[in-house]
């Protein structure tokens, strides 16, 4: 046998033994296809949000996280945020054992993002039954900017 054939067989055996893992996220959108018409098509497409439900904290609170294609910090809206139009907020009192504040000081005046105040925190993130991340860092938003409507978080 030639050396090239032996090396090719060894490489194929090595590649065949590599265990690949991947994460599957189920993306959703908030567009109601039944109500789409000529008059509201552009508005619906522009305001469309792609999101994924993530389970945060030891109590696995399901938070819909909007996907941003530009560079933005990951944040989740706190139950302490005063905004009434946000239906789902993260209740940090339920996850007392897993939620860790990385800084005692509240970050303020972040008007370039969809939130303006919050804390750097770390918590558990459960993506599926076989994958969880114990030190998921994000900002727990305590005050939103007035432009944003019904966003529970962004990633």
Describe this structure in words.
- With 155 residues, the chain is of the alpha+beta class.
- The protein has a single domain (27-154), classed as Cathepsin D, subunit A, domain 1, CATH 2.40.70.10.
- 14% of the residues lie in helices and 33% in strands.
- β6 and β7 (131-144) form a beta hairpin.
- The protein is extended.
- The model has no long low-confidence stretch (mean pLDDT 82).
Summed up, the helix count is 2
Q: What do we call the CATH homologous superfamily?
A: Acid Proteases
Poorly predicted runs of 5 or more residues: none
- According to CATH, the fold-level topology is Cathepsin D, subunit A, domain 1
What's the CATH class label? Mainly Beta
Q: Architecture, CATH level 2?
A: Beta Barrel
Radius of gyration: 21 Å
Task: Tell me the fraction of residues in β-strands, as a range.
Answer: 25-35%
For the sheet with most strands, the description reads: 8 strands, mixed
Global mean pLDDT: 82
Provide the number of structural domains: 1
First-to-last CA distance: 53 Å
What structural category do the secondary elements indicate?
alpha+beta
Helix content: 10-25%
Order of helices and strands: HEHEEEEEEE
- The shape, in one word, is extended
Question: Got a strand count?
Answer: 8
